[in-house]
Design a protein that fits this description.
- The chain folds into two domains: 179 residues, 3-Layer(aba) Sandwich (Rossmann fold); 180 residues, Rossmann fold.
- Helix content is 42%, strand content 15%.
- It contains 15 helices and 13 strands.
- The chain has a seven-stranded parallel β-sheet, with helices on both faces. A six-stranded parallel β-sheet has the order 10-9-8-11-12-13, with helices on both faces.
- The mean pLDDT is 95.
Length: 371
Amino acid sequence: MNSLPAKNRFFVDCHVFDKGFQGTRTYIQGLYLELIKDHDKHFYFASNEPKNLKVVFGNQANITYLKYTSHSALIRLLFEIPLLILKHRIHFAHFQYRVPPIKLCKYIVTTHDVLFEDFPADFPKLNRLQSFITYKFSAKLSDIIFTVSQYSKVQIMHHLGVKNVVVMPNGVDAAFFQEYNKKEIKEEVFATYGIHDYLIYVSRWEPRKNHHLLLKTFINLKLYENYSLVFVGNDTFHNKEYDQLFNGLDETIQQKIHSFKKVDFSSMLLLIRGASASVYPSRAEGFGIPPLESIAAHIPTICSNTTAMSDFTFFEDYFFNPYSEKDFTEKLDMVLKNKDAQIEAKRTAIIEKYNWVLAAEIFNATVKKYS
């Protein structure tokens, strides 16, 4: 592919594919599955385990997979990536949050949020300091700055002191919109995990994610008498309040609470489809895609109404204030008793506004200005 003009060569840092399932991986996967349809561009996807990338993006003429030799983020950013950019004559390199300090091509950075500045009490001090320094440096060094919501755009411009931030909303994977047989899904979930009739919360573990509010309400409403509670997501920061609540529960109740980590996409989709209801009580998000995914999968869902999630106006009565136990309790009780008669209208709204075709159009239009 050396015959391709340099401006058509895109390097994509995909180290997040070496870890568990998370939001940044969803973002890269959804966006680039759409972008690679353009065979006038060549894409260089790099990670420690390129075989994981091949499963997602497949083998086609305009894709080259590159392997990192080090698992160290510092070595990757300081040495490996600049050398790969130089070797393959890259024109644009796309990163999440942090870029290499040595700049040998045009940089694209996606800064999903700066929540550590908006909600400092929810983040360790050292993490906040490191994030602020590296995010600001990366944004200043980059030619293009993308983010995923209007809320994040305003906060990034304010805290990092940059301009011309472009909003490119996440899309919801088409797999969530596929039809399925609920009875068969529930049977598969029971055969695989031994659970049925459950509430689900998909999110990594951090204090701001409010797992403790869901657990507390689950107990107060005695939902354990008829339901199990399922958490899907990896650990990021410790939630002491949740642990104190959980450890104080009777063992029979603890057995109704399940936490699954390092869950792959197909397993996550299965668990979402099998749920009676989905809950998203996070206090702060740069975007917040899980409630959109569960609605797309026909699952009655209640969602926090703060930060970027306030854009999801179609939730209407299924919105709640995550700082109000009373509001959350009422909405959780409502969604279990009444389900959601408007779920099809919500699915339509999500398809129209949050799709990767639209995101790719925004990406290409922005990149064209810098080519």
